[in-house]
Structure formats: structure tokens, C-alpha cells
Amino acid sequence: xxxxxxxxxxxxxxxxxxxxxxxxxxxxxxxxxxxxxxxxxxxxxxxxxxxxxxxxxxxxxxxxxxxxxxxxxxxxxxxxxxxxxxxxxxxxxxxxxxxxxxxxxxxxxxxxxxxxxxxxxxxxxxxxxxxxxxxxxxxxxxxxxxxxxxxxxxxxxxxxxxxxxxxxxxxxxxxxxxxxxxxxxxxxxxxxxxxxxxxxxxxxxxxxxxxxxxxxxxxxxxxxxxxxxxxxxxxxxxxxxxxxxxxxxxxxxxxxxxxxxxxxxxxxxxxxxxxxxxxxxxxxxxxxxxxxxxx
Length: 295
Known about the structure:
By secondary structure, the chain is α/β, with parallel strands linked by helices. The chain has one domain (about 10-295): Spore Coat Polysaccharide Biosynthesis Protein SpsA, Chain A. The protein has helices at about 25-30, 50-60, 75-85, 105-115, 140-145, 160-165, 175-185, 210-215, 215-225, 230, 235-245, 255-265, 270-295; strands at about 10-15, 40-45, 65-70, 90, 100, 120-130, 135, 155, 190-205. Helix 6 (about 160-165) crosses helix 7 (about 175-185). The N and C termini lie far apart (about 50 Å).
């Protein structure tokens, strides 16, 4: 029988943690409920300074690997997780989020069935905390250039992460997950969204999305466009729209071009405020839809 130390798991769940010790028990409880059991858990302590977090990480059982590093932000922590991962499939999961019991089973099955060009799999999102509801997620490269409809919680082929060059560690203010999805697509990989809310995302005022990224939308999206200039050139945008026009999505060509024009012409603060308002409206609709479905 193979020793546990030598066993290569099917999946490595990598968990960046910066002063998030209070969430660890909930996270580990959701992993303990997974119906798919062939996985390891690797927590990346990204330079935590909080004593309670350090004590919690020190108290974890030995089968949970904890890697300590200086603070490098979410992208740097995820890249470290990929490097330490034993498995060929890696799931990125923030420490304050959780998974429904069949998440790994369904995303792994989708990956195995999808062929070698399927580089990443994700699911719809169930929001908890400040906002509640279900957010639909899908992959369509045309839409992805303008709005992020993938997820921060991705099951990724390690080879795809390597070929794409990993996460951009300079994007410490947010949207590193959006840029990474674009990066994977540019490297030739498809994404697939399981149409079930199996990822539980905690929405909070102190979360990066609410506290910084949304207010810096114009600046951060411009960084993505600058890093992938060829994809955003008008002939490439038109060609991509034509090639993917039969794939269901949310964006029309006119709306996409309007977004580009507004991002170019408006001051960053105005465009970011507009994007933040649209995001809050979308969250409110998701919350309302979830309440209607339960009534």
C-alpha cells in the first residue's frame, strides 16, 4: 500500500490566508463534507500578522500543509500554492469562502470529460454575508474581455497555469482572478461553468472586491487591457464577436463597444462609480431572484 506521503492526490486545494484564521474552521468543515475525497489541502500563510490566525494555523492537523511566506498578495499566494501543489488539478479557494458538498466531484468530473484544451472549471456562485443570492457564471471569451463572469474559485490544470505564466503578482489591488482567466484563454484554454451554485462566496465590506477593486474598476480593467492589447484591438474584438456570436452570453457587440468607449472617454472616478453602481444593482437582482425562488 502506498504511503500517504508518497500518494499523489487528484486535486490540490490551495487556500491563501492573510489574517483570516477566524474563517478556517468553516472552510475546513466544507472540505470535510466533500463527496470527492482524493484531495490535499495546502494553506498559504501570506505574511499574516494576527496572533489568532498564527495560532490557528499552528494548531492544524499535520495532513493539512501550511506554507509560510512574506506577504505577496492574493496572486502571489496562489502562485505559491500552485508550486507546492502535488496534484495535476488545483482548486483556488479563499479562506473566507466555502464549497457545497459536491463541488469537487462535479468540477473534477467536468474537467476529466472536457478534453486537454479545457483548462479551468468553475461553478455558479452562492453569495452570503452582506449580499445573498445566486450569481450565474459562464465562459465566453468575448464577454470575458469586458465583464468577469468566471470566478475566483477555479479548478485549473497545473500545466495550464504554467503555460499561462501564473497569476500577475503586480495586481495586488484586485481583479487578479479576472486577468488570470483572460490569460488562460489567451494561452489557448477553454473554461467551463457548472450551472449550479456550488461555490459559497462571502460578501463583506472589508473584502477586496467591495473595499477596493470595485472603486478602482477603471484603473484595473485598463491594466488588463494593457496586458492583453492584441485581444482588445478593434479588428480582434469584431472577429471574436463574430466567431462566438452563437454562444449564449450577456453582452451585445454594441454594449461591449460602448463599455470600451466609456472607459476611454470618462475620468476613471466616473467610470468606476458607474461600474460599482451596476455591480450593486446586479447583486440586488440576484438577491431578489433568490428570495422569489424561495417564496
